[in-house]
């Protein structure tokens, strides 16, 4: 006797997907063209056909536990060849956005990130309050030294705390996601550590992006942004170490342009701008497919470009000795730094952790693909 399966559609979830950019969802008539042409879909239970069906039925909980939503790299080969214009790539992109919001800790942060102006206003108001409390609302006189505006110990207190909080909330979100997959997904046979190591090697080389056809040229942009963030993270740790070294090795800002740390910082900032612009151009150009980038994706790209641009301008204006512009630009740059760090677990950057776990889980479930 056939097993009885009860499906409880979540109509509200279907409406959410359609409002957020998955408005073509109902055009899908399950021909499976998308799963056939996808270059990174596994042979066992391929995607995105089944995800489109589950989305049409409002199967929110099943999709939340589905690692294949995250195995999708938005190549958009599926959307290019879809005979109905259902745009599976865009629909899965919206799903990922919704599940980042679902796993957000606290949930309020996920909603704040969906309102970028409000999200950016928060650090501006916070920094103004801090500057007002220490009597630093004016433009400092004399040589341009940014610690005159924001003392180093205050910057460290603020951002070390923020990094810790963002890291903890991100780990909790990823833990929720993993537990959901493990509880409702395919049985696993492989070990976690070997699968994770294999996944990290893939991410470093961006092998899956290389298999994309329609959006294949995104690979260079993604790699530049990826390694730029790694470079900037190393730079941040490096300059913090400088502050705490004993004399005569201790170095305080402004750091000389001849210092290796400064070289890494500038190269990383340039790579971030170039990589982001490559991604922007890729989204704007005609790729022969009807696809729509969500505001979620555009907000991330714009914020990254502004982060890198204001960082470089902060340095250039200081070197030019334009006091009246230097300190306001530094303030603006810190606001974007706040945005990227604090909202990391709730933005497009969160994909990094979710996708890493999804690929790791697929390897453990023997559903990996040959790259």
Unreliable spans are none
State the secondary-structure class: mainly alpha
In total, the number of domains comes to 2
Helix content: 55-70%
| Whole-angstrom Rg | 23 Å
Describe the structure in your own words.
This protein is mostly helical and 371 residues long. It folds into 2 domains: 11-103, Alpha-helical ferredoxin (Fumarate Reductase Iron-sulfur Protein, Chain B, domain 2); 107-364, Fumarate Reductase Cytochrome B subunit, CATH 1.20.950. Helix content is 65%, strand content 0%. The chain has helices spanning 11-19, 33-37, 49-56, 60-64, 68-71, 77-81, 88-103, 107-113, 116-133, 152-184, 192-205, 207-210, 218-244, 260-284, 295-320, 323-342, 351-364. It starts with 10 loop residues before the first helix and ends in a 7-residue tail after the last helix.
Secondary structure elements and pairings:
Layout: H1 11-19, H2 33-37, H3 49-56, H4 60-64, H5 68-71, H6 77-81, H7 88-103, H8 107-113, H9 116-133, H10 152-184, H11 192-205, H12 207-210, H13 218-244, H14 260-284, H15 295-320, H16 323-342, H17 351-364
Can you tag this structure with a few keywords?
2 domains, Fumarate Reductase Cytochrome B subunit, Fumarate Reductase Iron-sulfur Protein, Chain B, domain 2, 17 helices, about 375 residues, about 65% helix, mainly alpha, elongated
Task: Give me a quick take on this structure.
With 371 residues, this protein is mainly alpha-helical.
